[in-house]
């Protein structure tokens, strides 16, 4: 729920309940005031009647408003005011009356005087009050709406723009985050904190990137020297077979080390999300390309290829897509048996690559860990699937590895 | 061909320049940015082999320098320890002709130099020859005793690599890496290099070519005069 909606809702609930309480309060207050006024009026009227009797004038009863009755015997003075329903012959309906009944002793005689006054029916004014309240309520709602609209277009605009800027920001990009300034203190503080954080992250990222590249450089250079010297040694005339084999093995090992270093660097770069450029590619065409390049290896092992691939667009960094397919298909060839089968299938939203194998992998869940090899004696560095996993993580693909006696299968759900 | 080699690592500088001299190039050495700038200002080179990470400056800046002071035909090969795509792209954008990541095989460097000099001499003599074997590089066709022979693309590349690096012992790994690049990691052994070699040898033999291709201790091959 938006903050604005939330506060508006609270405001509206509060305003509505206040209006309701106010309404009730107003009703009680009005009823009380009217009653008091009425009672005062009744008393005054009674005094007028008493005055008239004192003067010896005849009092005519006006039903049901005034009624004077001479009592037979002298009675103790008394007075009582109450509300009551009575039939009004003039209006021909039952009305609600305020009634004052008193016994007065005037000139040695006792009179019972009854004075009545119609009470204004609450229904009438409750309606009017209700109407007024409803109008106020509507005006309030419209007011809230207008204020929110104004707030969101003015005060919240920099905040919203900055949020979009942050959403679009990728830490690998070169420029710093440019935030729109605001006069609101809270937003200003937030901007400062965000700027500080992103600048720090960007500089950390930069130094990490430089560190990994420098580390690679420092390792690659001695490796290049080792390799050039070994090559030089290998070209010497009159090498014995033992010497030549020693040098050749050392050369192979230095190549492996160089590749391992490059691969680790690559893995670090993926983890640092340094491959940010994206475009849409056709998965089937990319698979075809890789298969063409690997044809020699497929032929060398006499592997039969069973493909069922159809057009499937995929938005990804091209180098990462190539690496992903290269590692998966490469593994399926490398760990295939002689005269084996390689199956590649694209269906719905997933890519399934499977190959025949002599033995099941002992712990398939560990296959995505670094330096885990199916066969410890193999010359591979065990980073291929770790890289695949990292690429899948970056794009939110789900990857699973299943194996049984015959088949090894990898499925990626895009 | 006159080459300027710019490399800050002394051991590598010596190794590469020795190798280039053996291959018959005239090679001058520069061990840092300033040194390289001096040489570029005073002499004319056909090819510059440049390590882009120098202690006193960025090699990429040097490329722009080269384009400014060396008129026309100077070619550039970048050497880098960083297999960084950014560097590679900006290097090639700035006008470098090729990019090699350390560590590399000398034979691979040689092959790249040859490829570049061939491109450079595109209008001139465009042939590679070893006795009775003649390459028509434009048509990608090999003639033996003036008769064309049919080679697959891999066999053609194999033979041209061997001849470019004649009299050198080339290990199977080296050849495989040249022919298949990174894809070679997918092979569990180098036996199929042997298969390709066997086919190539047979085709050469049938065409009446002398047997210049020798297997050395089962670990590699050498192409040399009898």
Provide a quick synopsis of the model:
With 414 residues, chain A is α+β, with helices and mostly antiparallel strands. Chain A has helices spanning 3-54, 122-154, 157-168, 185-234, 241-271, 283-293, 295-300, 318-334, 384-395, and strands at 66-70, 78-88, 93-106, 109-118, 279-282, 304-308, 313-316, 341-347, 350-356, 398-403, 407-413. In chain A, strand 8 and strand 9 (350-356) form a beta hairpin.
Helices and strands in order:
The complex is a heterodimer of chains A (414) and B (226).
Chain A: H1 3-54, E1 66-70, E2 78-88, E3 93-106, E4 109-118, H2 122-154, H3 157-168, H4 185-234, H5 241-271, E5 279-282, H6 283-293, H7 295-300, E6 304-308, E7 313-316, H8 318-334, E8 341-347, E9 350-356, H9 384-395, E10 398-403, E11 407-413
Parallel strand pairs in A: 6-8
Antiparallel strand pairs in A: 1-4, 2-3, 3-4, 5-7, 8-9, 9-11, 10-11
Chain B: E1 2-6, H1 10-22, E2 26-30, H2 33-42, E3 47-51, E4 53-54, E5 57-58, H3 59-69, E6 75-80, H4 85-94, E7 98-101, H5 106-120, E8 127-130, E9 133-136, E10 141-144, E11 147-149, H6 153-164, E12 169-171, H7 172-180, H8 191-206, E13 213-216, E14 220-223
Characterise the protein shown here:
The complex is a heterodimer of chains A (414) and B (226). With 414 residues, chain A is an alpha+beta fold. Chain A has three domains: 126 residues, no CATH class; 108 residues; 135 residues, Histidine kinase-like ATPase, C-terminal domain (Heat Shock Protein 90, 2-Layer Sandwich), CATH 3.30.565. Chain A contains nine helices and eleven strands. In chain A, the strands form three sheets. Chain A has a five-stranded mixed beta sheet, with helices on one face. In chain A, strands 1-4-3-2 form a four-stranded antiparallel beta sheet, covered by helices on one side. In chain A, strands 5-7 form a two-stranded antiparallel sheet. In chain A, a hairpin with a 2-residue loop joins strand 3 and strand 4. Chain A is rod-shaped, with a radius of gyration of 48 Å. The two termini of chain A are 31 Å apart. Chain B is of the alpha/beta class. Chain B folds into two domains: 119 residues, Rossmann fold (3-Layer(aba) Sandwich); 97 residues, Arc Repressor Mutant, subunit A, CATH 1.10.10.10. Helices cover 42% and strands 24% of the residues of chain B. Chain B is built from eight helices and 14 strands. In chain B, strands 2-1-3-6-7 form a five-stranded parallel beta sheet, sandwiched between helices. A four-stranded antiparallel beta sheet of chain B has the order 8-9-10-11, covered by helices on one side. In chain B, a hairpin with a 4-residue loop joins strand 9 and strand 10. In chain B, helix 2 runs parallel beside helix 3 and helix 6 crosses helix 8. Chain B starts with a strand and ends with a strand. The model of chain B has no long low-confidence stretch (mean pLDDT 86). At the A-B interface, helix 4, helix 5, helix 7 and helix 8 of A face helix 1, helix 7 and helix 8 of B.
């Amino acid at each position: 729920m938006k903050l604005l909606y939330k506060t508006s809702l609270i405001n509206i609930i509060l305003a509505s309940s206040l209006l309701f309480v106010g309404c009730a309060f107003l009703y009680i207050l009005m009823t009380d005031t009217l009653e008091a006024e009425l009672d005062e009026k009744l008393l005054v009227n009674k005094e007028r009647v008493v005055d008239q009797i004192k003067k010896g004038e005849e009092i005519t009863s006006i039903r049901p408003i005034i009624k004077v009755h001479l009592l037979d015997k002298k009675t103790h003075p008394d007075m009582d005011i109450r509300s009551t329903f009575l039939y009004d012959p003039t209006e021909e309906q039952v009305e609600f009356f305020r009634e004052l009944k008193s016994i007065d002793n005037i000139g040695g005689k006792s009179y019972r005087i009854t004075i009545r006054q119609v009470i204004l029916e609450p229904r009438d004014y409750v309606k009017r009050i209700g109407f007024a309240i409803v109008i106020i309520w509507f005006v309030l709602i419209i007011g809230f709406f207008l204020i929110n609209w104004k707030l969101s277009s003015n005060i919240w605009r920099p905040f919203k723009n900055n949020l979009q800027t942050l959403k679009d920001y990728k830490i690998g990009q070169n420029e710093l985050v440019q935030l729109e300034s605001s006069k609101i203190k809270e937003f200003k503080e937030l901007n400062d904190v965000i700027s500080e954080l992103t600048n720090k992250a960007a500089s950390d990222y930069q130094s990490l990137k430089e560190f990994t590249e420098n580390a690679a450089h420092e390792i690659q250079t001695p490796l290049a020297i080792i390799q050039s010297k070994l090559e030089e040694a290998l070209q010497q005339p009159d090498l014995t077979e033992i010497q030549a084999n020693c040098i050749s093995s050392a050369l192979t090992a230095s190549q492996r080390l160089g590749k391992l270093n490059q691969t680790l660097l690559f893995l670090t770069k993926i983890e640092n999300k340094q491959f940010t450029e994206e475009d849409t590619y056709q998965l089937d065409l990319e698979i075809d390309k890789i298969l063409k390049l690997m044809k020699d290896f497929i032929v060398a092992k006499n592997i039969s290829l069973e493909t069922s691939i159809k057009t499937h667009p995929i938005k990804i960094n091209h180098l990462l897509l190539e690496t992903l397919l290269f590692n998966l298909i490469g593994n399926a060839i490398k760990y295939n048996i002689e005269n084996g089968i390689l199956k590649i299938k694209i269906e719905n939203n997933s890519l399934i690559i499977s190959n025949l194998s002599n033995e099941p992998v002992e712990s398939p869940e560990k296959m995505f860990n670094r330096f885990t090899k199916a066969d410890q004696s193999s010359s591979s560095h065990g980073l291929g699937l770790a890289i695949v996993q990292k690429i899948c993580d970056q794009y939110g693909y789900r990857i699973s590895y299943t194996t049984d006696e015959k088949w090894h299968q990898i499925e990626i759900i895009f | 061909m006159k080459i300027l080699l710019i490399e800050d690592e002394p051991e590598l500088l010596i190794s590469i320049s020795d190798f280039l001299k053996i291959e018959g190039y005239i090679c001058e050495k520069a061990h840092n940015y300033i040194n390289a700038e001096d040489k570029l200002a005073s002499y004319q080179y056909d090819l510059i082999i440049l390590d882009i990470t120098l202690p006193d400056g960025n090699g990429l800046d040097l490329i722009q320098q080269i384009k400014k002071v060396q008129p026309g035909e100077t070619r550039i090969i970048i050497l880098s320890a960083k297999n960084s795509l950014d560097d590679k792209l900006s290097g090639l954008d700035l006008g470098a002709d090729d990019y090699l990541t350390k560590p590399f095989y000398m034979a691979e460097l040689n092959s790249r130099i040859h490829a570049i000099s061939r491109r450079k001499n595109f209008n001139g003599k465009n042939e590679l020859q070893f006795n009775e074997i003649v390459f028509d590089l434009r048509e990608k066709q090999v003639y033996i005793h003036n008769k064309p022979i049919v080679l697959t693309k891999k066999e053609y590349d194999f033979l041209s690599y061997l001849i470019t690096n004649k009299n050198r012992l080339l290990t199977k790994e080296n050849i495989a890496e040249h022919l298949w690049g990174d894809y070679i990691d997918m092979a569990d052994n180098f036996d199929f290099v042997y298969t390709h070699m066997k086919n190539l040898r047979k085709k050469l033999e049938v065409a009446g070519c002398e047997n210049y291709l020798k297997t050395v201790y089962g670990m590699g091959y050498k192409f040399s005069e009898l």
